[in-house]
Amino acid sequence: MTSRTVLLAFITFVLFAGANAPAVKVVLGELAPFWSAGLRFVAAGAILLALVAVQRRRVPRGQQLLGTVLFGTMAFALAYFFLYQALQDAGAGATMVVLAIVPLLTVIFAIVHGVERLRALGVIGALIAGAGIVVVGADQLSLAVPVTAMILLLIAAGWQAESVVIVKRVPPGDPLSANAFGMLLGGGLLLLASLVAGEPWVVPSQADTWVAMAYLIGPGSIVVFVLALFVLARWSASATSYAFLLFPLVAIVLGAILLDEPVEPSFLVGGALVLTGVYVGAVYRPRSATADTVATADTVATDNPPAAAPEVPTV
């Protein structure tokens, strides 16, 4: 496998994942939030489940089943319950900037759960990213975006981060199986929320809605997941995590081109602060610390199969 092939896979992964927020905005122009989110994940989960059956992959049982249930409930049902509501009012670019804080929140939550130790860089990164969120929030207020949309985005980011920590504490097992069952469970819960909310279950009538939904089910969910695993198998986790800093750039450009979303200077400043904070707190590792952990990480990766990787938080 050439390095050029892996790099191409990484670039494709970033482009597909970054385009998810604009696609969701298109779908929400016609379909209700819980109905469209549930439909997306039930369809994607069914396709992944077919792959699980064809490849005869291990189905989660016992403790792994518990991990899968927790993962599906948090990463899909709860996170997207808040995310799709927020996207009714928040722009695609702002959404991806806020969600870029997920890796940093994951580090913070891992410390709270006792999975990782407190690091000075983590605190500094959190403070920088927090300042960026304040700037982005002020910018969105100037664009008449409700404060509730920003709060909903932060709650969604929190649930996505918590799901990653839970995966570490209660591993769901095989990645493909965990995501298949997790998507089906999360999608089912979202459809239940749609019923309770009295949302209309309508079939899309507009061509752009069909295209956007097909994109979210295929490239935006299934292909993104497969590419994430492909890159993770060949690059380090820290290198792959740079994708989180690139998603907002794709979303901002596509949002401006496809949805005519305004891009204000203050938004760019706030977004830069958020991405800098995430890099400092969750991605950057001093050379000495990296050298000390490379050998251990390689041994663990060789002796133990990877735990189920949750879907990358890409809207």
Kindly state the mean pLDDT as a whole number? 81
Query: How many separate domains?
Result: 1
What is the end-to-end distance? 30 Å
Q: What would you report as the Rg, rounded to the nearest angstrom?
A: 19 Å
Low-pLDDT residue spans: 290-310
Which band does the percent of strand residues land in? under 5%
Put simply, the count of helices is 14
Regarding quaternary structure, what we see is single chain
Derived structural class: mainly alpha
Helix content class: over 70%
Order of helices and strands: HHHHHHHHHHHHHH
Q: For the report, how would you describe the main beta sheet?
A: none
Q: What coarse outline follows from CA principal-axis ratios?
A: globular
- By DSSP, the count of extended strands is 0
Descriptive notes:
With 315 residues, this protein is mainly α. It has one domain (3-288). It contains 14 helices and no strands. It has helices at 3-18, 20-28, 33-55, 63-86, 92-99, 102-112, 120-142, 147-169, 175-197, 207-232, 237-240, 243-258, 265-283, 287-303. α1 (3-18) runs antiparallel to α10. The radius of gyration is 19 Å and the shape is globular.
Could you outline the blueprint of secondary structure elements for this entry?
Layout: H1 3-18, H2 20-28, H3 33-55, H4 63-86, H5 92-99, H6 102-112, H7 120-142, H8 147-169, H9 175-197, H10 207-232, H11 237-240, H12 243-258, H13 265-283, H14 287-303
Helix pairs in contact: 1-10, 1-12, 2-5, 2-10, 3-4, 3-9, 3-10, 4-8, 4-9, 5-12, 6-7, 6-8, 6-13, 7-13
